[in-house]
Amino acid sequence: MTTISTTDAAVSAPRKPIYKQLYVQVLAAIILGGLLGWLSPVLATDPWVKAMGDGFVKLIKMAIAPIIFCTVVSGISHIQDAKKVGRVGVKALIYFEVISTFALVIGLLVGNILQPGHGFAGKPDPAAVATFAKQAGEMKSIDFVMHIIPDTVVGAFATGDILQVLFFAILFGFALMALGERGHTLRTTIDDVAHAMFGVIAIIMKAAPIGAFGAMAYTIGKFGPQALGNLLGLIATFYLTAFLFVVVVLGLVAKIAGFSIFRFIAYIKDELLIVLGTSSSESALPQLMEKLERLGCSKSVVGLVVPTGYSFNLDGTNIYMTLATLFIAQALGVDLSFSQQITILVVAMLTSKGASGITGAGFITLAATLAVVSPALVPGMAIVLGIDKFMSECRALTNLTGNGVATVVVSWWEGELDRAKLNAALGRQVDPSDVETAVTTG
Question: Is residue 1 part of a domain?
Answer without folding.
Answer: no
